Amino acid sequence: MFLRRIRGLFSNDLSIDLGTANTLIYTRGQGIVLDEPSVVAIRHEHDGGRKSVAAVGEEAKLMLGRTPQNITAIRPLKDGVIADFTVTEKMLQYFIHKVHESRLIRPSPRVLVGVPSGSTQVERRAIKESAAGAGAREVYLIEEPMAAAIGAGLPVDEPQGSMVLDIGGGTSEVAVISLNGIVFSNSARIGGDTFDDSIINYVRRNYGTFIGEATAERIKHRIGAAFPGNEMLEIEVRGRNLAEGMPRSFTLNSNEILEALQEPLHSIVSAVKNALEQTPPELGADVAERGIVLTGGGALLRDLDRLIAEETGLPVVVAEDPLTCVARGGGKALEMIDQRGLDLFSSE
Amino acid sequence: MTTADEAPAPTPEHPTPGLAGSAIPDSPGRELRQARQARKLDVSHVATALRLTPQVVEAIERDDYAPLPSATFVSGYIRSYARLVGLDPEPLNQSFRRLHPNAEPPPRHFARSEQNGEQTDGGGLAGALVLALIVLAAAAGGYAWWTLRSGPDEPAQQAATPDPSAPPSFSASDPQRELAPAPGMDRDTEARSPSDRAPSVVNEPPTEADSETGSEPTLGTSPDVRMAEPGAEPPTSATDPIPEVADSPALESTPADSTVESPSAPLPTPPSPEVERPASSATQTPADDEEEAVSAPADSSATAIELGFTGPCWVDIRDATGEVLLFGEMSRGDRETLAGEPPYSLVIGNAAAVELTVGGAPYDLRSVARGNVARFELDPAEISSRTPDATD
């Protein structure tokens, strides 16, 4: 324990956004120091069936769907929570080391990890223990909407309602925050991954062609939109034709993708509407006056703010650098530990 | 698909080329108002499209941020407004941040690459700390090694080196081990059996000598012993040791008392003819050993090997079983009688400072010493059989 404290002197406090799609690490005073996909490639040794980590992060993501038999590229998180405990621990260990790579002493940082507000006690404990197993000296948990709101610069400590919609890779969280606390939150297990799945399903249904997850993600980034624009974008993609069994190339346009995304988008809008219905009227009035703030990677989907504005009739703004809001907010919360104590953090 | 009043929304890939100024405008509100007027839109129209009140839109156009909510929201409003009227939102946002005192600077994404210099600075500081710790640890380790080593090495100052192949044995379980007592101690340490002085033997029953001396000399105190030497009273080599050891039961009946007065006996003189192998007391327990020394002094006196020290000397003496009889640094005035299984293996660091007698007869160490260090095997029985030839 004493040794850990000594090692802690050589470690930075970290705020980790352990996301389904990407893991981000924010270091006090340095900003975002790591942004890598939450992917781990596992190699199965031929002798004795031992497993070892072949690659983590960006390198492992390139392997997704392109691995030989002895390598499995997996995403250890699903729907914002841990699906594979051991692999998550290895991944976190790798990332924490990477952030401290210039250090001689094994790092033992204080770590703040964001958890979905809808996660269960078991899921939270898994995240906490995973971070501790990866070498963290102390682990704090914070609910992601709270971290996102702090990161977006909302006045969370004021007696005013602020609504934040954080669309991550696996979950979408909507929360109303006032006086450093979450008044109401709603979590839907819909996120960027669901968008990808919807695109894959749409292409299979309408083109009889099977495309991979990486291709679906590329389509979403290039021509994905949540609201009909007056600009038609196109992309050429390749997939395996189900009838012929041969790889074929074809062209998709943004209206088709908009159509493909209708179902998950509708679920997100429903979650927001539901939250607004449940919000106490005073706080609802504050939200109506200033608007809803979008954070998370999903906020980068073209015209998502317009869709939500149209559906709710409220102003909607996209936060500055929405991808890093949770990590940055967690970092700010870590800095406030000494001033405010632990009232920002969630218990297990 | 789109409402008629809305301009095409510029995307990151396709920013509207004409209106997007690369230079940061002084007033984002004025830019927005000009763009709105160029598109012939009125404030209420923009307010409806952005779901804001007309007052908020006007405040934005006046660059009056006091009645508006926090910077996060205003920045978002400006971006939406810019897209609505077909401007590139980023320059407008940057100028807004300049105007708004509370606006946060844009987040530094991927700060790692930007901050490499700073990173190495921090790493350098931590590295320097680590280096300092390592140097300190090495210095402490070196000092500890030197202190532990320099005790046995002390005779080297008198041109004698101990046998490096005989590593100091710190085994506390060796009850036969003897150590040099501190100079001041041998004043009140009256002839004790070797077991009495065995240091750090935890289970040893306390003896009279223990209570007298208060503390047993240990290996750890050897530096102290060394430091105490200069101040030690310089006794004459011939007279000093004898009164001190006079009570020793092992010595009482030996003729050694007379022979040690001639320290520089040139040749091994014949020991007494009734030399016998000493009783093997090495296997006995320390307590037994003491009693044995009292009850059978005559038995061991015939082949008793005594060491008288006239100066500081490092010794390592083992018996035939490999058991350590005497190990460590002896000081001037010490006398020791060996009890163990002959033949003995001796290493004497400073042969000139040792008077060795076998069965009362002096043994010439210089004949076996190389330089000033004597390394040799000694079997009292052999000497007793060889001495008649020597006399011939």
From TrEMBL, chain A:
- Tell me a Gene Ontology molecular-function term this record carries: ATP binding
List where in the cell it is found. Answer: Cytoplasm
User: Which Gene3D superfamilies does the protein's record reference?
Assistant: 3.30.420.40
Q: Which GO terms describe its cellular component?
A: cytoplasm
Gene Ontology terms: biological process? cell morphogenesis; regulation of cell shape
Give the record's keywords alphabetically: ATP-binding, Cell shape, Cytoplasm, Nucleotide-binding
The residues listed in the UniProt record as binding ATP, with positions renumbered to this chain, are: 20-22, 169-171, 217-220, 297-300
The answer on whether this UniProt entry bears the keyword Cell membrane reads no
**Per UniProt, what is one Pfam family of this protein?**
MreB_Mbl
The record's section on InterPro entries has: ATPase_NBD, MreB, MreB_MamK-like
Q: Does the keyword ATP-binding apply?
A: yes
Q: What does this protein do?
A: Forms membrane-associated dynamic filaments that are essential for cell shape determination. Acts by regulating cell wall synthesis and cell elongation, and thus cell shape. A feedback loop between cell geometry and MreB localization may maintain elongated cell shape by targeting cell wall growth to regions of negative cell wall curvature.
State the oligomer form and interacting partners. Answer: Forms polymers.
Which family does the record claim for this protein? Belongs to the FtsA/MreB family.
Protein name (database record): Cell shape-determining protein MreB
What is the organism of origin for this protein?
Answer: Halochromatium salexigens (Chromatium salexigens)
| Gene this chain is encoded by | mreB
From TrEMBL, chain B:
Sorted UniProt keywords: Membrane, Transmembrane, Transmembrane helix
Q: Where is the signal peptide?
A: none
Oxidoreductase listed as a keyword: no
Residue segments, region Disordered: 1-39, 95-121, 153-302
InterPro entries tied to this protein: Bact_Cytoskel_RodZ, Cro/C1-type_HTH, Lambda_DNA-bd_dom_sf, RodZ-like_C
Report if keyword Transmembrane is assigned. yes
PANTHER family per the UniProt record, alphabetical: CYTOSKELETON PROTEIN RODZ (PTHR34475:SF1), PTHR34475
Q: What is this protein called?
A: Cytoskeleton protein RodZ-like C-terminal domain-containing protein
* Natural source organism: Halochromatium salexigens (Chromatium salexigens)
